[in-house]
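Researcher: Here's the sequence for the chain we discussed earlier.
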Amino acid sequence: MSDSRVHSTKEFDAFGPWIDEVHTVEDLPRLYRHAGIDPTAYRLVLKVPRDIERRNANPDMHLYDYLIALDEETLTVMRRLDDTFGTVRLPLDRVAAIQDSVRLLSGRLTVHAVDGSETTVTYNGSAAAPIRNLIRLLRRRYLPQTPAATTDAVPAESNLDRVDTGLLTDYRRLMESEPGLRLLNAAQRRLVVPASRLERLYRRFWPITLHASIAVTDDREIQIIHRRDWFTPSGDDLSLARTVLPRARIIEVTAHAHERYLGVHVVTVRAGAARLQFPADAGPVTDALLASFPGPARRAHAK
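Model: Thanks. This is the structure I predict for it:
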C-alpha cells in the first residue's frame, strides 16, 4: 500500500462533521499537505470538513473543504476547488469586520477586508466551538489592548420577545466573557409596513418581520447580535449571528430610509471599501447606533 493510501485511509477513518485543530504536518488533509503550512509555526490551524454524510464519503475523496491558518500577522484560508485549492492571505491589520452565524447545522463565517473583499468559510453548525475560538484569537491579534472593565445591566426580558431568548443568552455570555462592553441598544422584533400599497395589502396575510438585535460596544469595537436574516416572512428563533466591527477601521457611518419598508432606516458602516448594512427602526435605535460614532464627519442621518 502506498504512503498516500495510508494517509488517505487515516483521513477517512477520522472524517466527520467536526472541525479539527491541526498540530503536525502529518495531520494536514492530503489536499493541503504540500501547501507549505507547518502547523507548529501558527497560532491556530483548523481543517474544516466537506458538508457530506459519511456514507457518501470514500478514502479517495478530498474530505476537507478548508484549511485555516492564523499566525501573528496573517489569516490564511485555503479552499478546496475540486482536486486543487485556492488561497487567500489576509493581513490582520486589513480586517474590516467579522460576521459569524449559525442556523441549525448551517454555519457561516465571513471576514471582510478593507479592500472590499470577503472571505467566507461554511461549516457544520454543530462544530461551532473551534470557529468561536478562531474569532477570539483573530480579534486578539488586531485588538491587542484590553479595555477597562465596566458594568452594565442585561436588557430586561420584557424588552425583547420571548422567542428572542437566544439573543439575550448570547448577550449575557458575551458580557460575562468581555466585561469591558456596554449596552448600546436592544431592539425588539416587529412587523414592518411596506411602502407599496399593493404589497401592504398582500402582507396583511403574509407579514414581514424585522428581527430583534442587541448592540454593544467598547472603545475598540461595536458588536451586534442578531439573526442571520434581518427580514423574514415568518419567525426566526433558530439562527444566531454576531457582527464585529473594529472601530479603527470605520471611516463613515450613514443612515437612509429603507426603500421597501416604512419607519425603517438602513445604517451603513463603511470601513475602507467594505460596506456593511444593518436595518433598524427609525428613531431611537438608529440614533443610538449613529451616536456611537462621534464626530459630524462620521455620521449622517436620513432626512
